[in-house]
User: Fold these one by one.
Assistant:
Number 1:
Amino acid sequence: MIYTNISINFIEEIIQEDINKGFPKKKLRFRFPPEPNGYLHIGHAKSICLNFGLAKKYKAFVNLRFDDTNPTKEENIYVNAIKNDIQWLGFIWDKECYASDCFEKLYKWAFQFIKEGKAYIDEQPQDIILKQRKTPFEPGIDSPYRTRPVRESLVLFKKMKDGKFEEGEGVLRAKINMKSANMNLRDPIMFRILKVIHQKTKNKWDVYPIYDWAHGQSDFIEKISHSLCSLEFENHRPLYEWYLKNIKKKERSKQIEFARLNISDTIMSKRKLYIVIKDGFVEDWDDPRLSSLRGLRRKGYTPESIRDFCHRIGISKRDNVINLKLLESSIREQLNKIAIRVMVVLNPLKLVIENYPEDKIEWFPAENNQESQKSGKRKIPLSKKLYIEREDFLEKATKTFHRLSIGKEVRLKNAYIIKGTGFLKESTGNIIEISAVYDTKSQSGSESSRRKIKCTLHWVDAIQTLDIETRQYELLFSLEVPDAKKYFLRFFNHHSLKIVHGYGEPFLRKVRPGEFFQFQRIGYFCVDQKSSSIIFNRTVILRQSHL
Ligand code: ATP
Ligand code: MG
C-alpha cells in the first residue's frame, strides 16, 4: 500500500503537546535547510518528508532555506537542482530563504557581542586554535587574544569586513567557556575571512558566518516554531541557545533532533558521493547506482515510492541502518500497480515450432497490467520462430525443473501450449536451437485451452522483434554499511553495471523516456531519460525473479 501521510511519530507528539499546552496552531512553522553544495539524496528526502509532511498536516508554513554560509563549496546550480528535486518529490515551499539574507543582521549582532565583551578577534592560525580547544576530557587553553580590549576587536572586525585582511589572518570567536565539557562552547568561531565570490551575495562580503552562528538565528528570524535537526546537532543546541539568549531574543524555535537515515549497501554522505563521482567510479550525480534523488529517479523510482519509504521507516531518536530491501519493496509495490507487463528475452535461445505454417503471423491480445483495468491491452505477434530464455530449457527435465524439455509441455504466455521435440547442438556442447510442436487448439483464453499446464514461459517472436539494451545495476559495494567505513572505496564493486542486450516485443518500439515496464519474470525497468537511444534501466528485480 502506498502511504501519503506521515503517521504519528515522537516529533508530532511533541508538537501536539505544545498545541495542547496553548501554542497557537497558526504559529507553527517548519523549514528544510539544505546546503547548496551538492544534490539531494534519499537521506534528505527523510527530512523533507518530515518537515513538509508536518506542514501539510497542520496547514502550516514551511520554508526552504539554503544554508549558504560556505561559498567555497556552494553553487547556484545546486540551488536550482535542490528546488527541482523537492518539487519532483511532490512538495511546495511557502518561502525561499537564504542564510545569506541574514548576513547583515549576523554582522550587526556580532558587532554587538564584541561591544558587550562576548566576542573577540583571534589572530592565531586555525590549527593553533584547534589545538587549544583540546579534547572533551581536558580543559581547553585560552587564546592570548581572549582578553584583548573591546575597542581593538571592534576595529579589527570592521577591517576584516572591509577586506583589509587576508584569509586566515583572523577570526571572530564567541567568548563562552574554554573549559566547557561541550566542545561547541569552547569559544566557537562566528566569522571567518573568505575571499571568494558567493553564489548569491557575489563579492559583497569578505567575512562569512560559520554555520553554527547562522543557523539558530535564521530559525529565529524566519520564526520557525519547530526546528528539526539530525542527531549530530544535539550538542550544538546549548550553543544556539547561548547565542539567542545573548542577542536577547525570547521567542525561540524548539529544536528537536532525530536520527539520520542510513541505508545498507549504499553511500549517502555528500563527501563520499563526491569522491565516487569525481574519481570516475560512477557517471555523475544521476548515476542510477547512487542514492541521490536524481540517481533513484533515473533508475525508475517514483516520488510516491520514496514518500512511502520515508513513511515506513518513521522517525526515531536512535541511529540505525535500514535495509535497502525496504526501499526496493516500496518501489516494487508501486510499479506492480502501474508498470505495463511486457515480454523481453535477455538470454535468448531460438525455438522453431515445427508444425507452425512458414509464413503465418498471429497476433494475440495481452493485458497491459492485470492489476489495473485502465491500462488496456495490446497485441503480440507469433510466427514459426521465436526466442525463449536459455535458462527455460533443459535437454532432460529433472524432478524440480518444470520448464521446457524434450517431451514436456509448457504454455507460451498469451499464446499456445508447446511440447519440446529436439535441439541442435554445436560441437562445444552449446545448444543453438530447439524445436517444439504446438497444440493448435490451445490458444490462451479459448474454450479448448483449459488444459492445466504447470509452467508458462515468456517469449518473443524472432521476426517481429526489437533489439533492446538493458542496464542492470548491482550493489556498489561489497560491504554492508559502506557509509560507516573510511576506506569504503576498497570495497567498490567494479562490476556493478552490466549492460545486457536482448529481444523485446515490437510494442516497445514506441516507449517514452521515464516510462515504466515490468519485463515478465525478470524485473521492473524504466526507460532511461538521458540517453538518445532507448535504454532500459533495471529499477528492481521481481520479488522472486526467475532469471
Ligand atoms: P551530508 O552529510 O550528506 O553532507 P548534510 O547534513 O551536510 O548531509 P545538508 O544539505 O546540510 O546536508 O542537509 C540538509 C538537511 O537534511 C539537514 O537538516 C540535515 O539534517 C538533513 N539530512 C541530511 N542527511 C540526512 C540523512 N541521512 N537523514 C536525515 N536527514 C538528513
Ligand atoms: Mg550540513
Number 2:
Amino acid sequence: MREKILDMEQYAKEHNVPIIEKDSIAFIMKFIKANDVKEILELGSAIGYSAILMASVKDDIKLTTIERDETRYMECLKNVKNCGMEDKINVVYQDALEVNLSGVSYDLIFIDAAKGQYTKFFEKYKYFLKPGGVIISDNLKFHGHVGNRGNIASRNLKQLVGKIENYIDFLKNNDEFETKFYDVGDGLSVSIRKDEI
Ligand code: SAH
Ligand code: MG
C-alpha cells in the first residue's frame, strides 16, 4: 500500500495532478478516525490519491468519488483496483454539478473539484449530509494567492482567486453552517450545521 501511494505521488508530480498536501490529508484522516466517519462523498477524484487514503482509515468506510476528466477517472479506477479497494470506493465519471443523488447521505463531503464552483457544490450537496455530518473544503489558500489578489498578473487566476475569496465569505456569513478554517496544507475548512454543534 505504502509503495502504491508513493507511486501515485510520483505520477501526480510527473503529470501535474494537484493532489492534496500531506498535512491536509493527515488532518482529514485524523478527523475521520476521531469522528467515526463511515460514508464519504468526494468531489474531484483526480487519480484517487485522497480517496484511497481516506478509505484506508477504517474497514467500515464507504466512499463515492466523482471525476469529470476521463484520463484521471481511468487512472483513478486503476489505482483503486491496484489497492484492492473496489468494494470500498465507487468512482463516478461525471460532472459533479450534474450528478443526481437520491436516497443517500454522508458523514463527510469533501469538496476538492473546480475551485471556482465551490459555492455551487456546497449549495447542491449540503442536502446530502447525515445529521452531524460535515463538509470539508480544500485549497482555500490557493497556493498563497487568496488574500493577495493585487499581486496577480493573470486575469483568469485573479478571477479564480476572487471566487475562492467569495466562497470564504459565503462560509463566514452562512446562517445555516458554522465553519472553522484551518491553516493546514493549502488551507482547509470544516463546516457543520449550526443546530448540530
Ligand atoms: N482530491 C484529489 C485531487 C483533486 S484535483 C486528491 O487530493 O488526490 C481536482 C479534480 O477535480 C480534477 O481532477 C478535476 O478534473 C476535477 N473536477 C473539477 N471540476 C469538476 C466537476 N465539476 N465535477 C467533477 N470533477 C471535477
Ligand atoms: Mg485539493
